[in-house]
Hints:
By secondary structure, the protein is an alpha+beta fold. The protein is 29% helix and 30% strand. The protein has a domain of 112 residues: minor pseudopilin epsh domain (minor pseudopilin epsh fold, 3-Layer(bab) Sandwich).
Amino acid sequence: MRTSPTGIESRGRPAFSARIRPAGFTLIEVLIVVTLIVALTAVLAPIMLPSSGRVLRGTASELTTTLRETRRHARADNQRRRFLVDTESRRYGIENSPAWKQLPRDMTVELTTAEALVSDDSRGGIDFFPDGSSTGGRVVLGLGGQALQIDIEWLTGRIEISGTGQ
């Protein structure tokens, strides 16, 4: 009988019995990981990749926010405020404000408004008044065969998005 360095006697075997497993992964472990990766990719890819419908809805939401901000300024300052759209350069903003926003590339914009608020072939506006009303109008955004329409009611100044942006 031999004595191990730990002082435990053994009979030709190591002092502790441990099954030594070869390094690596089993086929089942690899298949489970691959399946999880495929499932996550299938779920997350549509969310992460840009789509024309998502870009269109996001831009319409931003434009609507600027319209509502214009209306809010008119009511807070107790004076007329004008929302402007330049269809040629595809920009929009509040009159006399340096913070104009650029529409995404390839997006089209059309403005329907009162003739008195059209300054040239590509620029026009919608006025908001201190009582919350407006001159009314419509902005149509288009991208990739889809379109969203933003309507501004003249009497109430209410702003609503509708259309086919999927």
